[in-house]
Amino acid sequence: MKEQITDNLDFISGKRLVQELFRYLEEEETFYQKAFEIQGQNNFYTDFIDYCQLIVEKILKEYPTHPSIVTDQTFLSFHKNYQALALAETIKQVVQGQIPKPHPDYILAEITGLK
């Protein structure tokens, strides 16, 4: 997972990063389905949320963003956390086959506040 996210942060766009993450998780679907099921200490999902936080921060730095998001630092902090949790849960549900994979543009629109 580290190679898919942190090693690529400086080399590909946020949209491409989301696409690559979905591709990687599809290739390793069985493993990550089990990883998402682990509960308790050292569970995968907690670390995955941290990775999603990095993705959200990259997208907010890289793409135009609704002005109300970036002008209030308290709201920006809340927004980053909220969007990281939403992204992590969305990806988890896709991997577990509960929902279809969303188009990366939908994810960018939600994070940036621009639709």
3D architecture notes:
The mean pLDDT is 90. The longest helix has 23 residues. Helix content is 72%, strand content 0%. Helix 2 packs across helix 7. It is an all-alpha fold. The protein is built from seven helices and no strands.
Could you give a short description of this structure?
This protein has 115 residues and is an all-alpha fold. 72% of the residues lie in helices and 0% in strands.
Q: What's the helix-strand series?
A: HHHHHHH
Report how far the terminal alpha carbons are from each other.
29 Å
Describe the global form.
globular
Unreliable residue stretches: none
How many DSSP helices? 7
Provide the β-strand percentage band: under 5%
Radius of gyration: 14 Å
Structural class: mainly alpha
Overall pLDDT confidence: 90
Main beta-sheet strand count, sense and barrel state: none
The total strand number stands at 0
Helix content: over 70%
List keywords for this structure.
115 residues, mainly alpha, globular
Question: In terms of topology, how is this protein built?
Answer:
Elements: H1 2-5, H2 14-27, H3 29-37, H4 44-62, H5 67-71, H6 73-95, H7 104-112
Helix pairs in contact: 2-4, 2-7, 4-6
